[in-house]
UniProtKB/TrEMBL annotation:
Family: Belongs to the CobD/CbiB family.
Mode of membrane association: Multi-pass membrane protein
Name of the protein: Cobalamin biosynthesis protein CobD
InterPro entries given in the database record: Cobalamin_biosynth_CobD/CbiB
Location(s) in or outside the cell: Cell membrane
Pathway info: Cofactor biosynthesis; adenosylcobalamin biosynthesis
Length: 318
């Protein structure tokens, strides 16, 4: 693995990073990813002008991501403090608890019939318009966000941590953040953000499919598993994103929900390909989507532990 860490140490550091996330949650002040977003904004404002915007975007991506990644590589090689930094970087990059904290209040507001509050809370996590959204629309948006971020903010981060330790997780999250900021197909970003979008596609390709496979495997019943697999194979190709499609289609199928479809963006209704099959989403389905995401994270953490134990035993007895 690129980090140079053996599986036993990697498993311990992964558990430490996940434990920090569970205990502390998202940093309320001075979160590194928030600071990175401001730094990336400044780079974009400086470079996204004039001609050759594709190459300007490539330069912007390199200036935004490479220095921090190289710094992380250097710092993690400084003795025992460097080992601890692997866990700290994973803590800052993974978003398991924050997914819960951002979506559970939406479910609670819907349960209490407070549609205005639910609309306000949902608008914080999705880019679609929520001013006239009803319960089904809000529950659908929250469930889709949970399923997609089950890869982007959780498993994808764990995957690249397994490959490259803390710097690997950092590289993935910074690239994913830039895709979220610059990866739009509009006049401002279609050329400038192309490199950011394509790099994120590459980094996410395998993690997204492992996440989709996990959603299939962890579906509650055999029928649910079959439906999740069918939705993945038939619906994902129609989705604009090559990685979000498999993740959300399999997750929606596993939950027996009909997601996708109509959504309002900038005052206009857009019709997106269907995701999953079954009934419309309700408030309770937000918690069901969360449980599927957290179960996926626990299962892959268990894989880390087993690999770590196997690595330890192989060194101990052979």
């Amino acid at each position: 693995m690129l980090s140079g860490l053996g599986w036993p140490m990697l498993a311990l550091l992964a558990l430490a990073g996940i434990a920090l996330d569970a205990l502390l949650g998202e940093a309320r002040r001075w979160h590194p990813l928030v600071g990175f977003g401001r730094y990336a904004d400044a780079i974009e404002r400086s470079l996204n002008a004039g001609s050759a915007r594709f190459w300007r975007g490539a330069l912007a991506w390199a200036l935004a991501v490479i220095p921090f990644t190289l710094l992380a590589v250097w710092l993690t090689r400084i003795g025992s403090a460097g080992l601890l930094l692997h866990a700290i970087l994973l803590y800052f990059c993974i978003g398991l608890r924050s997914l819960r904290e951002h979506t559970q209040p939406i479910a609670q507001a819907l349960d209490c019939g407070d549609l205005a509050l639910a609309r306000q809370l949902t608008a914080r996590i999705v880019s679609r318009d929520t001013a006239t959204a009803q319960e089904t629309d809000l529950a659908k948006a929250a469930a889709e966000s949970l399923l997609e971020n089950g890869n982007d903010a959780v498993f994808g981060t764990l995957f690249w941590f397994a490959i490259g330790g803390g710097p690997g997780a950092l590289l993935f999250r910074l690239a994913n953040t830039l895709d979220a900021m610059w990866g739009y197909r509009n006049e401002r970003f279609s050329a400038f953000g192309c490199v950011a979008a394509r790099i994120d596609d590459v980094l996410n390709w395998l993690p997204a499919r492992l996440t989709a496979l996990s959603y299939v495997a962890l579906a509650a019943t055999l029928d649910d598993k079959r439906r999740a697999w069918r939705c993945w194979r038939t619906q994902a190709p129609a989705w604009p994103s090559p990685n979000a499609g498999p993740v959300m289609a399999s997750g929606a199928g596993a939950l027996g929900l009909a997601l996708g479809g109509a959504a309002v963006y900038d005052g206009e209704v857009e019709y997106r390909p269907p995701l999953g099959a079954g009934r419309n989403a309700r408030a309770a389905d937000i918690d069901r989507a969360w449980r599927l995401v957290v179960l996926t994270a626990f299962c892959w953490t268990g894989v880390f532990i087993l690999l770590g134990a196997a690595g330890y035993l192989s060194r101990r007895f052979w």
